[in-house]
């Protein structure tokens, strides 16, 4: 009768689907690890469950390294050919937003200088408050990214520690198995676990790579259909050739989802305060508004930038210095405004006091001029009495 080929379809029962997903996901990751070791290739795996949870694997230690190589691969390919491809769509969304780290630092420093060089007539208190809000939002976003990167580093270290422990346990188990195999070598009992290592023969390695790669992509396809998940594979051969697999037709959509997922994990609420600046008011104010807008656009692509923890700490320091300077300038302007009002009020009081003094003097002079008119009749009466 032969074997009947069953049609793959989604597992309807939720608990069965979850169990199958857990088992098959681990199996796919294990096969990806074996492929990377045996054939000396780089493998990256992205899996989004039906609930939106992300599972990832990278043979290079960091998924960012393979994603960077993936972008570079298509950049080089685009430079050699004018034809459009999926990589242009993926990379084109970031090339206008993401600026170099050095340019971002220079922009923040320019804001610092603009605020320091501007006269009080050119910058109002409202302008400084708006600048303070935008710099504060940029500083919070940078700190959130720094915190996320620190957590990712800690998690990577924990994963590495866990992997080393598992490897240590595996080696101990393998050592015990080797000792047992030596004792039972004559009886040919049990199965000996073969240690995975790179296949030295080039032809054998190429054949193994082709077979295992196809088998891995098949397992990934089965996982995506049975468990209703999204799966993407990136495989770079030892010669640098790229092999891709995507359960949704193109790896671009899954990579974009991964980028979006990374941004959402960094912060739950994204600052959306956009300053409405009057660009025709003053030349310096226009320049300051443009600089703030440049910083904001750069920070929108902050999570796509491959910045190190040291870069983020330097950016945080520059933003903090600029924000502190703006706050000090705002306080100085408020104090100057209060002093100006105080001086005006004091001047008005002095003028009013002088006016009152003049009125009092005038009234006194008026009374003195009235007394001589009353004395002559009195003197006449006295002379008659005498």
TrEMBL record:
Residues 1-61, 189-249 form the MADS-box domain. Residues 88-183, 275-366 form the K-box domain. The keyword Transcription applies. PROSITE patterns: K_BOX (PS51297), MADS_BOX_2 (PS50066). GO terms for cellular component: nucleus. CDD domains: MADS_MEF2_like (cd00265). Residues 125-174 form a coiled coil. GO terms for biological process: positive regulation of transcription by RNA polymerase II. Keywords: Coiled coil, DNA-binding, Nucleus, Transcription, Transcription regulation. GO terms for molecular function: DNA-binding transcription factor activity; protein dimerization activity; RNA polymerase II transcription regulatory region sequence-specific DNA binding. Residues 366-386 are annotated as: Disordered. Residues 377-386 have a biased composition (Polar residues). It comes from Populus alba x Populus x berolinensis. It is found in: Nucleus. This is Uncharacterized protein. Pfam families: K-box, SRF-TF.
